Amino acid sequence: QVPAVTVGAGTVTTPAILQAADAAGAAFFVSPGATNELLSAADPSTFLPGVATLSEMMRAFDAGFRIQKFFPAEALGGTRFLKSVSAPLPQLQFCATGGIHAGNLAEYLALPSVLAIGGSWMVPAGLIRAGNWDEITRLAKTACRLAAGAIGSGPDKTAQSNGSLSHE
Prior knowledge:
Layout: E1 8-9, H1 15-23, E2 28-30, H2 36-41, E3 47-48, E4 50-51, H3 54-62, E5 67-70, H4 78-86, E6 93-97, H5 105-109, E7 114-118, H6 125-130, H7 133-153
Parallel strand pairs: 1-2, 2-3, 4-5, 5-6, 6-7
């Protein structure tokens, strides 16, 4: 236990993994996809189903998931795709991941439909293997500074969310 730290579980691909992560104390769960089994087993207030198509987005929304993980964002068309989706599906909001980096995070965070972004550029595997925590810290601080600047100049994200991952 670390005060002020919230731990989540990523790459949740089966209900069994979801249950194991929950038992281990994860507070939220993220998946690269959205199977019917996962949508049935998960709680919309703590689970981000991964979506890539409008049909997947609509199916997840029908199951109660208003906030979804858009993955792999850049490979699917990035912000252009999300802008297009927002017209027919304005009720959805996204955590965009996959190809997000320091050079494009502001473009994502400027979209009203994007509540959050995720990326691994600030924790490269090579730096982890080398134990280069100073460089990882520097990259993480840079990411936070860039995100704070993007959010400060963009739409009010807090006004769009009710504080949970479920749809209203």
